[in-house]
Amino acid sequence: MVKVVLVHPQIPPNTGNIARTCAATGTELHLVGPLGFELSDRYLKRAGLDYWKHVNIRYYPSLEAFETFWRSQSGRWIGFSASGSCSYIQFQFQPDDWLLFGSETTGLSPETLASCAATVQIPIKRLYVRSLNLSVSVAVGLFEAHRQLGYLE
């Protein structure tokens, strides 16, 4: 099943909302540090409400630690970025994909994007809007992957 990876998230309520989305869809959530908050943060817990017990969550202190774990698994890294090479709607997701999202302030680093099998973007019609909120972006990308793979039926 598709997995969500947050690389250096900074805003606790975003991560809490993403955890709730992962609980709703049965999706694993992988957090790659350093984080901009403590996992015990009250705003993180509040945004996730009482769904935390339903989230399969893993934490890695660094991208290198995550990459070591990932190498023991299967699947492609799919980087979500405003500079992605194609629309997430045109992209063909696979069941073992890892959807990577960067921090709210900087996105994924050029090095991380270069390590991805593909980079996708969520088209934004108004050029004065640089990007969508992280939790919105994760929901949009995750639900499209689930739709394509028939997980919503």
Description:
α1 links the parallel β1 and β2. This protein has a seven-stranded parallel beta sheet. The chain is globular, with a radius of gyration of 14 Å. It has 153 residues and is α/β, with parallel strands linked by helices.
Topology readout:
Elements: E1 3-7, H1 12-25, E2 29-32, H2 42-48, E3 57-60, H3 63-71, E4 77-80, E5 86-87, E6 98-101, H4 110-115, E7 118-121, H5 134-148
Parallel strand pairs: 1-2, 1-6, 2-3, 4-6, 4-7, 5-7
Strand content: 15-25%
User: In CATH's first tier, which class applies?
Assistant: Alpha Beta
Shape descriptor reads: globular
**Separate helix tally:** 5
Supply the number of structural domains.
1
- The average pLDDT score comes to 92
Question: What is the string of SSEs from the N terminus onward?
Answer: EHEHEHEEEHEH
CATH superfamily: SPOUT methyltransferase, trefoil knot domain
